[in-house]
Specification:
It holds the Pfam family ABC_tran. By secondary structure, the protein is an alpha/beta fold. Helices cover 33% and strands 22% of the residues. Helix 5 crosses helix 6. The structure holds adenosine-5'-triphosphate.
Length: 272
């Protein structure tokens, strides 16, 4: 089991309802794209899956573990199996890129190794290999505050690749990359998940990128699931309705209207 959310609600301290009774499940090894207008609840949903926010309604089961009533050690162990790619990765500016990448496995290492790795990187070849996948191995020993926004985003992706999490959550993971690199990087995340049998959930601003790369699309609007469909069943009407409140056409990576759903899933989609 990848995850199962049942009637999950989340209301922020200021009364803002971010999630209103979301039920959503994924098999282990499935890859899902979340799309929807700004403020729809995509980040909130990913934050619940990341165990960063606790729902105030409903139940959540992640990687076969029920969240409610979980002890602190069990929660730590669960978190070590969940990897998050942030839109703006929270990598300390003064830290070396190598250390930031290796931090992906801090939760899996014994305390002595995690502490030692902060002082002296414990697996330089591993970090280099992860960075090479995002074409950033030349920045291995650079400081994070010497990276551009796009390079920082790729370093965050290298960190999650290095972590080898069973559940990978990506919140606008390629927003700072150009269209070609964005597509290649999303496919890298999908290929990595497919090879390892990991579950991947990615929120994407660009609807065409979601349709081109993922086999399952979940549209979120107003904290609810507007649709949850195989990509080949997503119609232009679904997309227009999803983004109607913004008075816009669905946002795309490439100029022009969002391509209608392909008749068959994109050939490079490897996830089930
Ligand atoms: N920390 C917070 N405190 C209060 N309200 C919040 C907080 N974070 C999000 N919200 C509210 O929760 C709702 C869902 O926000 P969320 O960030 O999940 O949307 P989103 O779909 O990720 O949007 P975007 O695409 O703009 O990032 C919005 O109405 C937002 O204003």
């Amino acid at each position: 089991m990848g995850f199962a959310l049942e009637g999950v609600g989340l209301t922020h301290a200021n009364g803002s309802v971010a999630l209103a009774g979301i039920s959503l499940a994924a098999r282990q090894g499935e890859c899902i794209a979340l799309i929807g207008p700004s403020g729809a609840g995509k980040t909130s949903l990913l934050s619940v899956l990341a165990t960063a926010w606790t729902p105030d309604q409903g139940s959540a089961q992640l990687l076969g573990t029920e969240l409610r009533g979980l002890s602190a050690p069990a929660l730590r162990a669960l978190r070590a199996r969940i990897g998050t790619v942030h839109q703006a990765p929270p990598l300390p500016g003064r830290q070396r890129v190598v250390t930031s990448v290796l931090a992906g496995r801090l939760g899996q290492w014994p305390a002595w190794k995690a502490l030692a790795s902060l002082a002296y990187p414990m697996d330089i070849p591993g970090a280099r290999a992860a960075l090479a996948q995002v074409d950033l191995d030349d920045k291995l020993f650079a400081r994070c505050d010497q990276l551009s926004g796009g390079q920082l985003q790729r370093a965050g992706i290298a960190r999650v690749l290095y972590q080898q999490a069973a559940l990978v959550l990506a919140d606008e993971p390629v927003s700072a990359l150009d269209p070609t690199l964005a597509q290649a990087t999303v496919r890298l995340l999908i290929d990595d998940a497919a090879q390892r049998g990991a579950t991947l959930v990615a929120s994407l601003h660009a609807v065409d990128l979601a349709l081109n790369c993922f086999a399952r699309i979940v549209g979120i609007k107003g904290g609810r699931i507007a649709f949850d469909l195989p990509t080949d069943q997503v119609r232009q009407e679904h997309l227009q309705a999803l983004y109607a409140s913004e008075g816009q056409t669905p946002p795309t990576l490439q100029p022009g209207p969002a391509a209608p759903a392909p008749a068959t899933p994109a050939p490079l989609t490897l996830c089930r």
